[in-house]
Design brief:
Layout: E1 4-7, E2 10-12, E3 18-24, E4 33-39, E5 46-52, E6 57-59, E7 67-72, E8 77-82, E9 91-99, E10 103-106, E11 110-114
Parallel strand pairs: 2-11
Antiparallel strand pairs: 1-3, 3-8, 4-5, 4-9, 5-6, 7-8, 9-10, 9-11
Length: 116
């Protein structure tokens, strides 16, 4: 399995920004997809943004125009830049990768709280 370690979560006021980072133990380009999910209390885990190897970047409708996913293939890192944060963005954010050979891997999650 791929080891994933997230960082960058915290408490931010509405309208603020945060950048999440995920360190990946594998070569990102050996993976099929990589991205970010989130889970708020009492709700199902949902995809926030993802990158498909050689394919499109996808965003949840709720974050389009506010969040940007990117990667650094040399450092094997995945980022999620979040701007215009809203209270409804409060959740635990998880890094996720998928590989035909290694399957699905999840990080331990990082808490993002948007509150005044």
């Amino acid at each position: 399995q791929v080891q994933l370690v997230e960082s960058g979560g915290g408490l931010v006021q509405p309208g603020g920004s945060l950048r999440l980072s995920c360190t990946v133990s594998a070569n990102i380009l050996s993976l099929n997809t990589w991205g970010w999910y989130r889970q708020a209390p009492g709700l199902q885990r949902e995809r926030v943004a993802s990158i498909t190897n050689g394919g499109p970047i996808r965003y949840a409708d709720s974050v389009k125009g506010r969040f940007t996913i990117s990667d650094d293939i040399h450092r094997n890192k995945i980022y999620l830049q979040m701007t215009g944060l809203k209270p409804e963005d409060t959740a635990v954010y998880f890094c996720r990768t998928n590989s035909v050979r290694l399957g699905v891997s999840w990080g331990q999650g990082t808490q993002v709280t948007v509150s005044s």
